[in-house]
Amino acid sequence: MSDTLLTVQDVAHVLQCSENSVIRRFAKLDGVIDMGRATLGVRRYRVLRIPKSVVEPYLVSQQPKGNRRTVEIEVPPRADHRRKSPNWEAKAILNLAKAGLQNGCANKAIYQRIANHARVLAQYVPENRWREIVWYDEEFE
Known about the structure:
The structure is a single chain. By secondary structure, the chain is mainly alpha-helical. About 40% of the residues lie in helices and about 5% in strands. It contains five helices and three strands; from the N terminus they run E-H-H-E-E-H-H-H. The protein has helices at about 10-15, 20-25, 50-60, 90-100, 110-125, and strands at about 5, 35, 50. Helix 1 (about 10-15) crosses helix 2 (about 20-25). The longest helix has 17 residues, at about 110-125. The protein starts with a strand and ends in a 17-residue tail after the last helix. About 10% of the residues are buried.
């Protein structure tokens, strides 16, 4: 299956609505995969995977009849989730060394700046906003 599967959260982001609205709208559509389970006597637990090829025609069908155009959605970027690891520092060092080597970096100040920026991101900026950050060189201050 080559079609991109989106989570309820992804589709809610694209449609700019709540996750509950996405579940109500897409749960019974053909092609949507429901991986949840029914539990006795309580609200149903739903985990949906919604193919991109289901969302796009849905958006077209929501347009006024005389003004319908094809729609192509862009899949929102997903943050990498990493498991806690006792040797995370060693892995981070190796990743930074590899990036520095690939970019021909031997300047100690650059490595220090990268470490400082990473610390600021981790302490003060929510992870889902990291891609929005633009760093300016200290030379221009």
